[in-house]
Amino acid sequence: QAQLVESGGGLVQPGGSLTLTCVASRIAFSINTINWYRQAPGNERELVASIAPSSSTSYSDSVKGRFAIYRDHTKDTVWLQMSSLKPDDTAMYYCNDRLYGTWGHGTQVTVSS
């Protein structure tokens, strides 16, 4: 069955950097758009970044200029590189695919001093 597995979350100080990884399997990766969402306690799930099969990208206004999403078709993997992190970036981060609607279990990012 289709599967997405996230990793790379952790505790980081404000202003720091972190890179999240999403490894995909059985989701037709080469023709599928992959999204990163996040959800903080008490908030709705928010779309953070997307990358199309062509590697065209889009970002939410809240992360534009600080986050970068990229993919490797040979590894069926998508990364979310996060820099200049703020406490407001604290959330559970989820990987999702557009074609099948598959979700990973998430990885926690906490930005705190």
What features would you describe in this structure?
The chain has 113 residues and is an all-beta fold. It contains no helices and ten strands. The protein has strands at residues 3-7, 10-12, 18-25, 34-39, 46-51, 57-59, 67-72, 77-82, 91-97, 107-111. It has a six-stranded mixed beta sheet, with no helix packed on it. A hairpin with a 5-residue loop joins strand 5 and strand 6. It starts with a strand and ends with a strand.
Topology:
Blueprint: E1 3-7, E2 10-12, E3 18-25, E4 34-39, E5 46-51, E6 57-59, E7 67-72, E8 77-82, E9 91-97, E10 107-111
Parallel strand pairs: 2-10
Antiparallel strand pairs: 1-3, 3-8, 4-5, 4-9, 5-6, 7-8, 9-10
Q: What attributes does this structure have?
A:
113 residues, mainly beta, 4-stranded antiparallel beta sheet
Summary of the model, kept short:
The protein is mainly β and 113 residues long.
Beta-strand residue percentage: over 45%
Proportion in helices: under 10%
Strand order of the largest sheet: 2-10-9-4-5-6
Low-confidence stretches: none
Biggest β-sheet description: 6 strands, mixed
| Outline type | globular
* SSE string: EEEEEEEEEE
User: By helix and strand content, what is the structural category?
Assistant: mainly beta
Distance between the ends: 40 Å
Rounded average pLDDT? 97
Q: Measured on Cα atoms, how large is the radius of gyration?
A: 13 Å
Number of E-type strands: 10
What's the tally of helices? 0
